[in-house]
Amino acid sequence: MRRAGPGAQTATTANMANMGNAAGVAGTAPGGTGTAHASPAAGASPGMDASRAAGREPLRTEFEFELPRGFVDESGTVHRNGAMRLATARDELIPLRDVRVRENPAYLSVVLLGRVITRLGTLGSVHDGTVENMFASDLAFLQDFYRQINAEGHTRAAVACPHCEESFEVELAGSRLGES
């Protein structure tokens, strides 16, 4: 893991930047598995009315998702539907203090996702232990989803086929959370 000097980007911040895609995603999630739906945030801030008056959409801070496989709890219940909130700077910094992350930087995504997943099925709470016991395909889905909702802008690009000139969009998603 890189150490950051003054003005340098931390490994966590660099990894979070690699995780980013579009906020407000709806439709099929990356890789064609699971579904990602945007949901409005609970509660409105004082600036919401001004945003609406100016014709801008209010900021969404929580987004719904559906896991491709689902988390299986101790009783055998499968939990697939959940919600993830936007990450804060604190969410990205606190995992750097975690001993597990210092020993294994790849564990960063587990700790970070445990902080930002607000709901998963009927579970009372979601934490890093929950994420740690997810199937690898669900973890990869959540890493991609994190990138999508936490980036300003998006990683889809409109392109045209050089042979037939048909226009379509391609996904330019980055690397997995926790990797450089």
Give a brief description.
The protein is α+β, with helices and mostly antiparallel strands. It has helices at 11-19, 48-53, 89-93, 99-103, 108-116, 128-132, 136-150; strands spanning 27-28, 35-39, 62-72, 78-85, 117-120, 156-160, 167-171. A hairpin with a 6-residue loop joins strand 1 and strand 2 (35-39).
List the helices and strands and how they pair.
Layout: H1 11-19, E1 27-28, E2 35-39, H2 48-53, E3 62-72, E4 78-85, H3 89-93, H4 99-103, H5 108-116, E5 117-120, H6 128-132, H7 136-150, E6 156-160, E7 167-171
Antiparallel strand pairs: 1-2, 2-3, 3-4, 4-5, 6-7
Estimate the mean pLDDT confidence.
Answer: 75
What is the radius of gyration computed over CA atoms, rounded to a whole number of angstroms? 18 Å
Note the gap between the termini.
9 Å
Order of helices and strands: HEEHEEHHHEHHEE
Number of extended strands: 7
* SSE class: alpha+beta
Task: Name the shape in a single word.
Answer: globular
Biggest beta sheet summary: 5 strands, antiparallel
| Sequence of strands across the biggest β-sheet | 1-2-3-4-5
Strand content: 15-25%
> Helical residue percent?
25-40%
Low-confidence stretches: 1-33, 38-48, 174-180
* Number of helices, where a helix is a run of at least 4 consecutive DSSP H or I residues: 7
